[in-house]
Design brief:
Elements: H1 16-33, H2 38-59, H3 64-67, H4 81-90, E1 95-99, E2 109-116, E3 134-140, E4 153-154, H5 167-171, H6 179-188, E5 194-196, H7 203-210, E6 215-217, H8 222-234
Parallel strand pairs: 2-4, 5-6
Antiparallel strand pairs: 1-3, 2-3
């Protein structure tokens, strides 16, 4: 599962402590990426500047509705090699892995949940009368046996995936997950430290902190490292569904 240690001390959001945390997140991300094929690493690098520019526009106050317009997706989104490297490093520890029904499944799947997204989701890429408005959530590794008390269909209070009030619109990350969704998943996860090797906008780390759990997060993109550090230092800036 994803995350980074919750801060107990904070300085100004532009201070040295935040920069140190962002730098640590980025360095660990680069170290993890060295295990990937070279063409995968180069392709990620080409998009880093573009993603940083989006973050800069949001920080400078550009209309978030424009900044969260439809996008071409995350580069190498259908390439599962980075995911598989990270899961292999985790061994048989319990995992919660978001993925596509149209991409190779991760190894050692114990169960599959379905995230039902809001009514405006799934229009792009759909070629049938049905929207692509669901996402697979794989439970991997060794999960302890327990009573089946929850539905395998999970939802968020988020009303829309697009627009300035969505997680993507607020954070600038196109795959930003709703905080309340991550909290639901963590509630049912076994106890222990939460680790997110692809921290993105930091939703998993914030969810772990809200439940009093220690966490570790890794993110290769410097702009998102700074966003995560800022969100952790200032609390949840965007409300319960950001």
């Amino acid at each position: 599962m994803p995350s980074r240690s919750s801060p107990t001390r904070t300085r100004d959001c532009r201070g040295g402590l935040l920069r140190e945390r962002a730098l640590l997140l980025r360095r660990v991300g680069h170290a993890l990426s060295r295990g990937l094929p070279r063409d995968h690493r180069v392709a990620r690098g080409r998009r880093a500047g573009e993603r940083s520019a989006v973050r800069d526009r949001l920080v400078e106050g550009e209309d978030k509705k424009k900044a969260s317009r439809p996008h071409a997706g995350i580069l190498n989104d259908q390439d599962t090699s980075a995911r598989d490297v990270a899961l292999a490093l985790m061994g048989d520890k319990p995992g919660v892995v978001f993925g596509s029904f149209f991409a190779p499944f991760p190894a050692n799947v114990r169960h599959i949940l379905v995230w039902q997204k809001p009514r405006d989701a799934g229009l792009f890429g759909a070629t049938t009368p049905y929207r692509r408005d669901v996402e697979a959530v794989f439970l991997t590794g060794r999960w302890p046996a327990s009573k089946a008390a929850h539905s395998s269909v999970v939802r968020s209070r988020m009303s829309m995936v697009g627009g300035q009030n969505s997680p993507a619109g607020r954070t600038g990350h196109p795959h930003s997950k709703p905080l309340d969704l991550m909290e639901q998943l963590l509630v049912t996860a076994p106890p222990g430290i939460v680790a997110d090797p692809f921290a993105g906008s930091g939703a998993t780390l914030l969810a772990a902190r809200s439940q009093g759990r220690r966490s570790i997060g890794v993110e290769i993109d410097e702009a998102y490292c700074e966003l995560i550090a800022s969100r952790l230092a200032q609390g949840d800036l965007f409300g319960g569904v950001a």
